[in-house]
Every structure is written in C-alpha cells, then in structure tokens.
Design brief:
The chain is mainly beta. Helices cover 0% and strands 48% of the residues. It has one domain: 3-layer Sandwich (Rieske Iron-sulfur Protein), CATH 2.102.10.10. β7 and β8 form a beta hairpin. It starts with a strand and ends with a strand. Bound molecules: FE2/S2 (inorganic) cluster.
Length: 102
Amino acid sequence: MKHELCKIADVPKEGSIVVPFFGREVHVYRVGGAGLRAAANVCLHFGGPLECRDGTFVCSWHNASFDISSGDRIAGPAPKDSKIMFLSTRVEGDGLFYVWGE
Ligand code: FES
C-alpha cells in the first residue's frame, strides 16, 4: 500500500503541517536537517490532538508532551514509556508517501 501524505515543498522548515489520513490526521515535519517524519495526531493518554511547539508535541487536552524526534513521552499524564506513533514513509519524486507492506 502506498498513499501520498503531502508534497515535500509543503512541509515547513519549523513546526509541522497537519494532513488528513484516512479520516484521521498526521503531523508531517522535518527532523535533523532535511529528514521528514510523519506522526499520528493522537496523544497516548486519551487520544487528544497534539500541537507542535519548540521541538515537542503538546496535547491540548491535559498537556502531555512528547519529543518530536524520538517520540518519547516527556511529561504529563500519558504512560511513562509511551511514544507517539510514527508512520512508515518514503520520499518519491516531490512527495512524501505512507507505505505499508512493500
Ligand atoms: S489526552 Fe492528551 S494529555 Fe490527556
């Protein structure tokens, strides 16, 4: 399965772009220079939406925070060993694609 998330040119240098993903949302952003990453817009506490702020994702419901590079929980009520969910992706041409089972 392969599904285009967005055009690479649409990903901001800082922060993230939120794109639709089969009825849900995904943050797409840059890490460590030019690397791209896609993370489900879902908090590991009760599923609240995440805001991308200063290198972290912060949940707007109860303020859990997660590192955008590792996905690790930093603080808040999400389980201590929880991680945000990353999607498997591949760059092809001018787009970033979600890929599964290839
Ligand atoms: S749902 Fe995210 S901190 Fe509660």
